[in-house]
């Protein structure tokens, strides 16, 4: 029989590549008949995948794919030939640079796209003369990266998925890997639990991860520091600290001990809304374990005190000597399939490829030796800072594979801000809510149409290989970005790559942590950073003898609780937001999958039965959730899984737009938004069903 997806216009073939969704990085390939299937990869050694991986091909041949460049003409989009569209971009960005300078342009890099593509994009920004380049790691683990880089010298998993299997205690703080990183959960975390490891889950909701937990701390959103400090106090009080490690590998213990002596465990537990005995139980499970690993996610990072939250967790690991050995460490599970790599290769405003500060003259010189131009020394704007300045000092945006009009906080305001720009180009697969505000939309390539590399959550660089040709006149992202580099900068020769491999070779020369890697060396497997060409391997467990700061010791930190930005008025509930298994981020990909939509198709608001009863809300009722920033209508899911006083909403769609409710407060160090705490009023909707259009 012939495969009905093989049309005269498109051809598909099976080639091992990497799943386009989460940062676990499972091997997948085209399986025929319009589907993807798991293939044995470095992470999923048995070819196991989750429902998203299985649905990955649905977007590739979706009828909504952009297949022609679009340019705005009298307020409406019309299709245009590539030359005309690229000229419009060169004119639009060029005019802003001429009139306002290069710092009036903001570049959005893409965690959904390859290292090579992101490297070319940040090179383009920097050769143009601005460090205004950022990626949605800003909305995600920016705070984790800030705290971990500061204390340990690297903002990435200290350990590997493999060695987590050796842990005796898994302390999962503000993450729900059972739903968000399913293969990491099933193939690495659950086996450890089955072997006897104690799982502690710190999360205001009971979810699929909690089902495997021995200890659950359902804290109030925004009280992670209270909980972590109480645990630290118990560790000291009950003598569960590692004296030898403290003496040899840390500084500042006396100061921290003094601070913790003033921490009242019962009072902190009360502030967090948890049982003090359960806090002690969690502390003992962590402190008594031979190997204890912290796993951390968005519940920790997405607060205006996100960096401090992570500092408080780092204290636990350092107090107990749980760093530098297998089965230990502090392990952020990264978001998209290449959020780690997009940052590694320089898609951040303050650092060059390989995380060297833009302020470091030697690092700039090393880059200049390769590029022929020195990048600017002043850090650029983060993407949230930039959208707050649209129409003022920022006048143009180049948005590559991101959907900020849906995913940034206070998103209605962000969407309007896009209209204040003089010029905006979006490179995407679909006509997203953000694209609706652009002057030019360029049709890029989906995961199955590209070659390159991505870096997964445990620092493994793996190769992507094409499984499909392009729909219509869509182009490979790598070629689009290289073409923009040739048109927008005065160094066109810097963007004449023979292909992604040539760009990767350049990355290995510019970014020391990738030094010595090659496509050939990666092959069907991986190379892990920090890589050493001498032994052909990367470092699995970081900080074993010394920290990546170059120091033998890391400092302990005194961390005080920080109240959330939104204070609750009488009758209001705390809104926290997050994800479900079957949907992915802004929904541009997952929503176009019939398979995923059939499993779970709409954003819902979890609300406790008592809060629902107080408001006359029944399960399945449409409810209005509102605050001073906006109002959305969603369906209520009445459930005791969420604690009283707290509601949880997913943010996967442009309509209803959950991010209309989230606020502008940012973490002062990392600039991460407070997605996990807003004050809202919840009431039955005034008649009518919840809206559900794209
Ligand atoms: N299915 C699916 N998988 C995904 C994604 C997706 O959209 N869908 N997105 C990918 C991306 S980009 C990312 S970053 C990861 C994120 O993966 P996770 O970090 O697991 O994602 P979230 O659901 O945002 O948040 C995790 C948990 O934090 C809890 N939480 C809320 N507020 C607080 C708080 O104040 N303190 C604590 N301790 N916990 C709190 C929530 O109840 C939630 O269960 O997932 C990746 N994988
Ligand atoms: N309320 C709330 N908001 C949040 C969060 C939360 O927990 N709560 N989490 C935040 C987090 S952790 C993140 S990471 C962000 C995610 O924010 P975004 O990065 O903006 O969201 P995505 O949906 O991952 O992807 C954006 C776009 O990339 C496009 N795309 C995918 N693959 C490709 C490709 O290969 N080429 C091209 N050219 N385009 C492609 C998709 O079509 C989509 O439009 O959301 C943040 N927003
Ligand atoms: S666990 Fe993540 S990488 Fe693996 S198949 Fe699921 S979404 Fe894809
Ligand atoms: Mo993320």
UniProtKB/TrEMBL annotation:
Coiled coil: none
CDD domains in the cross-refs: MopB_CT_Fdh-Nap-like, MopB_Formate-Dh-H
SUPFAM superfamilies linked to this entry: ADC-like, Formate dehydrogenase/DMSO reductase, domains 1-3
Molecular function in Gene Ontology: 4 iron, 4 sulfur cluster binding; formate dehydrogenase (NAD+) activity; metal ion binding
Assigned keywords, A-Z: 4Fe-4S, Iron, Iron-sulfur, Metal-binding, Oxidoreductase
A Pfam family: Molybdop_Fe4S4
Domain 4Fe-4S Mo/W bis-MGD-type: 12-62
EC annotation from Swiss-Prot or TrEMBL: 1.17.1.9
Top-level lineage group: Archaea
Enzyme class: oxidoreductase
Keyword Metal-binding: yes
InterPro entries xrefs: Asp_de-COase-like_dom_sf, Formate_Dh-H_N, Formate_DH_asu, MoPterin_dinucl-bd_dom, Mopterin_OxRdtase, Mopterin_OxRdtase_4Fe-4S_dom, Mopterin_OxRdtase_prok_CS, Prok_molybdopt-oxidoreductase
Record-linked PROSITE patterns: MOLYBDOPTERIN_PROK_2, MOLYBDOPTERIN_PROK_3
PANTHER family according to UniProt: NADH-QUINONE OXIDOREDUCTASE SUBUNIT G, RESPIRATORY NITRATE REDUCTASE
Protein name according to UniProt: Formate dehydrogenase subunit alpha
Species assigned in the record: Halorubrum yunnanense
